Amino acid sequence: HSCCHRRWMIYTGVDSKFQSSRTARSEEDRDTLWDAWGSWSECSRTCGGGASYSLRRCLSSKTCEGQNIKYRTCSNVDCPPDAGDFRAQQCSAHADVRYQGQYHEWLPVYNDPDNPCALKCKAKGLGLVVELAPKVLDGTRCYTESLDMCISGVCQIVGCDHDLGSTAKEDNCGVCSGDGSSCRLVRGHYKSQHASGKRHSGGRPL
């Protein structure tokens, strides 16, 4: 009996290896149905955080599994103060287009909870709010107080490390993925040298 039991164990081991090699080969075959990824596109913005994409072509006569496009962030440097707001620039670009027979100065509508990646603008001096484009340009912030950005009309999560899909956040000290140990909160009062009698409270780094 011990002989036969050992044989059975050996057989299942071979079968398991055979199965795993088949799985690996099928995954390899799936990948070879795609052409190589192309070079990255020019960044959608020159500053303030934008998006770049890379494409690949399906070589199969049937549908390939997976995506034919991938994105990454780029130009993650602050814009100069006079650069203006990116969403506001897109609204202003419609100033020379008639809407209901009239020209308007368009101002941006921020933080739309239903569709943050649509270009909604309001006519200055009026209560008129219009969706001037179904999608804002890639790299537009979904919300004013967030790094999340719109790509192809969809709000994508962006961490403080500027990586797409990252959940990295700043700690209380403003350090990305920090543990809050690089600063401490100092509570108290001190007299300002420039404003007599005024009291302030604040924090300081370690």
Account of the protein in words:
By secondary structure, this protein is of the alpha+beta class. The chain has a domain at 81-136. It is 18% helix and 23% strand. Strands 3-4-5 form a three-stranded antiparallel sheet, with helices on one face. The protein has a two-stranded antiparallel sheet with strand order 1-2. The chain is flat, with a radius of gyration of 28 Å. 14% of the residues are buried.
Layout of helices and strands:
Blueprint: H1 2-32, E1 50-55, E2 69-74, H2 86-92, E3 106-108, E4 119-123, E5 129-133, E6 149-151, E7 154-156, E8 183-191, E9 199-205
Antiparallel strand pairs: 1-2, 3-4, 4-5, 6-7, 8-9
